[in-house]
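User: Quick sanity check before I run a bigger batch. Here is a single chain. Can you write out its predicted 3D structure?
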Amino acid sequence: MKKITSILLAVCISVTIAVTTTTESMSAQSTLKGDIDGNDKVTISDALEILKYLAGMESMISPQNPSVWAAARVTGGNHPVIADVLEILKYLAGMENIIGTKPLTHEQQLAAEVVKLVNIERQKAGLDPFVSSNRALNNATQRRARELTIDYNHNRPDGKSAFTVLAEFGLRHAHAAENIAMGRVKPADIVNAWMNSPGHRENILNNEYTQIGVGVAQDSEGMYYWAQLFFTPLG
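Assistant: Done. Predicted structure follows.
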């Protein structure tokens, strides 16, 4: 067990830029599982604190500090264990865990706002909102957004149709369409531009499509690229 602890400790240290080792900045009110340092989020530094405790090193974790002691016992045991560290690492990797859903990245927040605005436009037109919870479709659309930073085109960088990305994520479509854009930063500006373009507007308000994926990516110069995939599953 000590060997495993030492290995994990070394890994966490290697990817941690800075770790606070005092309790002065700690929030006594933190109730988030895994939030050892009390900053209302779970980071690699929190995993490191548990590993330091398990290795017998100086750490924030102590039974005399009830809020921190509770936060460190992620899996609900009587005291912090290796399993608590693993849950934090799974959380940070976006894997299924008992802490909760990993906070959205900036790009994911932008994409979610685009979905919200598009569904508002559909509701104005008397249409059902798009379903946006298809993870495979979202991943496919994010791949398309990254590809647009290489070649801004409805064809992929290898020359194939944009819709070939769907099959790569196990999606079979009865109907599909794509909107792309670049340059603008605000979701409202993107949706407004699409709604003022007849072809893009038609895709957004087409009742044949039931699902939507939105992807956002930046190139090396900070330019934003946006992709929408409209999708109706086959069968």
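The first strand starts at residue 173 and ends at 182.

User: Great, the batch can go ahead then.
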